[in-house]
Amino acid sequence: MNILVADFIYTNEGYLQGKAVAFDETIQKIDDFDILKNLYPNAKIINTPKNSVIYPGFINSHVHLEFSNNKTSLEYGSFVPWLKSVIKNTDMIQKCTTNDMKRACEEMLKSGVTSFGAISSNGNDLQVCTETPQRVVFFNEILGSKEENSEVSYDLFIKRVENSLQHNSQKFKTAISIHSPYSTHPILIRKAISLAKKKKFLLSAHLLESKAEKEWIEEGNGEFYNLYNEFFGITKPINTKQSFMQEFNDTPTHFIHLSSATLEDIAYLESKNHSVAHCPRSNRLLGCGILDVCKLNMPWSTATDGLSSNWSLNIFDELRASLMLHATDDLHNLADSLIKSITSVPAKILDLNCGVIEVEKFADFTIITLPDSPNAVEEISLWAILHTKQVNQLYIGGNRYV
Ligand code: MCF
Ligand code: FE
Q1: Whose CB among 17, 143, 355, 373 lies 3.0–4.6 Å from 179's, allowing a Cys bridge?
Q2: Ligand 1 pocket, 79 CB below 6 A?
Q3: Which class for 264: exposed (0-12), middle (13-18), buried (19 or more C-beta within 10 A)?
């Protein structure tokens, strides 16, 4: 048994002061230090520096590890030019080494991320995801816009799903990602969703990210028209906005972005119990605007997306950017919501037994240290976001990794 002591503990009831947490692989009890010490006299005591805060380990619900070697290769500023640059750099994934991906996992770890959702385009990230200390929801991606190639694409996808299934464990969960309405043929969508239902796999999909995507799936024109015509000889979208959203009606899905969704689209997705990953830096860099998260009624997480559309996987960098980009929202409420968006909310979305400091949850902890005492407990979320670059300690399943 271990007893972790810090000035503050973040719980769903707010920041507790003067308490400690007893844990082994899971959390056993949260109480006064003296009470825990009496209850577990042989426990190892872990002290933390003054002004430290214990958070549940952070969850980054959406990342693409296979693009971890991008720094200056992809074109930023506008979505379709970015997508063209991805298509042009098809060897990027092949050139991304195990070390590039390990470094990406480490960067997340040092910023407090103890679980992440990995979109796997190719399966090249499987080994890294099974060996990293973090919990991983491994979303095997399916895409392909040509009907005549759908059988081959599906067979390759199933092989990747089967490979990943062999690694299912307490720390690794196989899931499915349908890339997007513009890139995935309805035949593939239906097969993948019916597999997800049958095997109880979590589902994710990029949706309504750019204005160009919205124009294409709503009206069949805009920048995507030229792209699809030029690259694939396709002149009509393979899914409309409605047809795509309807495919997911009875399978709550973690949609990514929604930065170009209308209020009506959002109300529809809310009514079907879906959730969304907000990736503010990715959206900014690819010219996709910003999702107004404070107005949402559906669960939303904050995620980094991949290094394909970001300059770091440090989750605190993402939270700081979000604070700046949502410039007119109440600062303290936003800071509190942002902490929820990387803890309890994504834990529910990804069905992980962590994300809150509560008895029986996994002992996944991120400990940060504020540079000075906070004037008010209510302000801790903001100070933590503004001042943290790296965490002080980090535990996953009761084991220390930072
Ligand atoms: O989330 C960002 C932007 N939106 C869509 N896709 C991706 C992102 N980062 C990487 N991707 C991948 C996606 O998984 O890029 C490819 C897919 O494999 C685009 S389709 C050729
Ligand atoms: Fe993405």
Answers
A1: 143
A2: no
A3: exposed
Query: Looking at residue 179, which CATH number applies to its domain?
Result: 3.20.20.140
pLDDT over threshold 90, residue 93: no
Is residue 75 domain-shared with residue 48, that is, in the same domain? no
Q: Tell me the per-residue pLDDT of 63-81, one tens digit each, with 9 for 90 and over.
A: 999 999 999 999 999 999 9
Q: What's the whole-model pTM score?
A: 0.98
Query: Is residue 62 predicted with pLDDT exceeding 90?
Result: yes
209 CB near ligand 1 (under 6 Å): yes
Q: Would the CB of 67 count as within 6 Å of ligand 1?
A: yes
Nearest ligand to residue 177 Cα: 1
Verify whether residue 219 is a known catalytic residue. Answer: no
Sheet of 393-396: strand order equals: 14-17, 8-11, 52-56, 365-369, 393-396, 399-400
Q: Is the C-alpha dihedral spanning 342, 348, 353, 358 positive or negative?
A: positive
103/61 Cα distance (integer angstroms):
18
* Probe residue for ligand 1, chosen from 73, 122, 179 as the CB with the greatest number of ligand atoms within 8 Å: 179
Q: Are residues 262 and 330 in the same domain?
A: yes
Ligand 1 atom 1 nearest Cα: 305
Structure tokens at 109: 């770890």
Q: Are residues 51 and 159 in the same domain?
A: no
- Extract the tokens encoding 77: 């500023």
Active-site annotation holder among 107, 141, 209, 213:
209
Q: How far is CA 394 from the centre of its chain?
A: 18
- Which strands sit side by side in the sheet containing 27-31, from one edge to the other? 27-31, 20-23, 2-5, 44-46
**What total of structural domains would you count in the chain?**
2
Tell which of 328, 349, 370 closes a domain: 349
**DSSP calls for 343-369:** THHHHHHTT-S-SS--TTSB--EEEEE
Number of residues assigned to the chain: 402
Looking at the fold, whether 298 and 237 belong to one and the same domain comes out as yes
Tell me how far apart the alpha carbons of residues 251 and 190 are, in angstroms, rounded to a whole number.
12
Taking the C-alpha atoms of residue 33 and residue 136, their distance in angstroms, rounded to an integer, is 33
